[in-house]
Automatic annotation (TrEMBL):
It comes from Streptomyces vinaceus. NCBIfam families: PRK08255.1. One of its GO terms (molecular function) is FMN binding. CDD domains: OYE_YqiM_FMN. Residues 135-322 form the FAD-binding domain. Residues 388-724 form the NADH:flavin oxidoreductase/NADH oxidase N-terminal domain. Residues 732-752 are annotated as: Disordered. SUPFAM superfamilies: FAD/NAD(P)-binding domain, FMN-linked oxidoreductases. This is Bifunctional salicylyl-CoA 5-hydroxylase/oxidoreductase. Residues 741-752 have a biased composition (Polar residues).
Amino acid sequence: MRAGSALRVAVVGGGPGGLYAAALLARQGHTVEVWEKNAPEATFGFGVVLSDETLGGIERADTVVYAALGAEFVRWDDIDIVHRGRLLTSGGHGFAALGRRRLLEILHERCAGLGVRLRFRTPAPAAAALAASYDLVVAADGVHSATRQGGAAHFRPTLTSGRCRYIWLAADFAFDAFRFEIAETEHGVMQLHAYPYSADASTVIVEMHEDVWRAAGFDLCDEAESAARCAKIFGEALRGRPLHGNRSAWTEFRTVVNERWSHGNVVLLGDAAHTAHFSIGSGTKLAVEDALALAEAVATEPDVPAALAAYEAARRPAVASTQRAAAASMRWFEELAGYVDQPARQFAFNLLTRSRRVTHDNLRLRDERFTRAVERDFGCPDEHTPPMFTPLKLRGLTLRNRVVVSPMDMYSAPDGDGTPGDFHLVHLGARALGGAGLVMTEMVCVSAEGRITPGCTGLYTAAQARAWTRIADFVHGSAPGTALGVQLGHSGRKGSTRVMWEGMDDPLPEGNWPLVAASELPYRPGVSAVPRALTEADLASIRSDFAAAAVRAAGCGFDLLELHCAHGYLLSGFLSPLTNHRTDAYGGPLENRLRFPLEVFDAVRAVWPADRPMTVRISATDWAPGGTSAQDAVDIAAAFAAHGADAIDVSTGQVVADESPEYGRSYQTPYADRIRNALGVPVIAVGAISSWDDVNSLLLAGRADLCAVGRPHLYDPHWTLHAAAEQSYAGPAAPWPTPYQAGSRTPPTGRG
């Protein structure tokens, strides 16, 4: 604010975020009042964890609070993970914690010393009344924020409940480390999260899936009985000590997201604005960082509207990142039962990297000895070989590394006759020379009517087969050791469209061909052509088309064949209940919807050489209500595996036009993870995997066996070789082509 323009500030809520905001604003010379409906000593929970990053912000903003906190902190570096009685420890993590009550006392003292008026046992007036009387209203009134609820029409909140129940308890002794422990009970899997917050006390959180919670009868237990039962279940970890509560109740975690954080001169802060699952220890941290950002914005911007806009702009990206990490961590614990059969060290690595904030490379820096042990268990040939450069055998094919160049439609067949040309030779040849273990073609169509666009390639003529043979010969001759895979598919109702850069999914302006599909449902109602529902005679003909294309593919010399059953194309259209409305033997329950895709798979497998592997790409979710469920995806994968699929390529979406994907880093990998750990079948993970560190992390955690990387290979055809160089790997899994050897080191740059 302009010099001399002191504000009258009302803060609703006396938690850490509200109190710290009050103190920082009072330091700037503003008049601040805080309303807290509870007594000053009243608080929920026990200990809070703050990161070094947050503490650095506090130190820069207020050395008095920083010094007071520093005198109270308990610090430790280790994380202990107990898996089926085996204790594994990973070090180098760095935590600082203190009691929540003591934190509030420090902030009470600081606020009082700065002249903040603290109103305890006093509910705040309505936000509208405060907004009329004060220049700035800070709503720090928690996850159940009355301010947010009252202004819901403007803030537009979304509250999403998790699938687990948890309870905050405490033990009267200090754990030596942050401890995760798994209990496999007769009712299901339960987990303990515990950490010290003083020399003689620890926070203990017990969590379990809602189904387990009900089966165990915890829904009928009061606080005392819940504490006693949890102490018995985790008796060894607690050394026989009791647990006690503090107005503790079993809760389902609620993720809060708001479209807007301010309205007029009212602004949301902390849990009122956003929440992130406790398993990444972020609630108090986020609230304190909000307070720091709000105070800085008030100090530097010319007026309140500008300050609130600057505060939200500064905090939104960091909060969104934290919420994505927290959501991944929360889902991991919700799916915990699917991981407990992993080997102990892999399980521990998986747990440590669950949020994707800790990665393989990061963990190796923190605790190299632990990470090397996980790598040995994984099968890395030696300590100089990263996980991504560990070979994988599928039938008679040994892939020299775990990197796959994703199938990517190029829409570049010359003359529109489906025959690949020089572009495809250069495109696929360049990626093969770039070091990936497996390079996949785009979707190669099994008939002219099965093309997506006139620019799509096919394998339904002898000329096309000769062109693909030329490409396969180049790859095998010039990039020995690189496997070349072909993806066979049929466009179904998504065919007869323009190439992507002329209008994705838009029908051709002329020269359209008739479409066929499981049911007479257009992809984009009112835009796309209505397909004809396939008859049994049509189904037999299309099965023959797939088999004939597979025979040609074998003759071309492809090393692997993938059947495309994803993304809303023909076979995918049979699998999804949103696109298959048939009433015959090929529609209805999943068993029937699987029938035709499995018939096609069997027809292809029968003619594809027995020593060459087959994979199947599926859409594990439609990202739309009523579509393929998580269990459906597992069942679909299981059916293909039972018919002989050697791996499942797990993608998502593109089945219906009105989908709502949850985009983000590695956003599709949880679906591959679920299938792999439920079935034990090898999986290919796809979806915004953009760094070699992510590839190593996914593999080592047992979430994938291969990682398909698309756009990074468009940006850099030598992505895999560069990943090897950046990791100082020069082994047989990523050899530089002999003519390129001189470029295997980073070129020198000019002087600075």
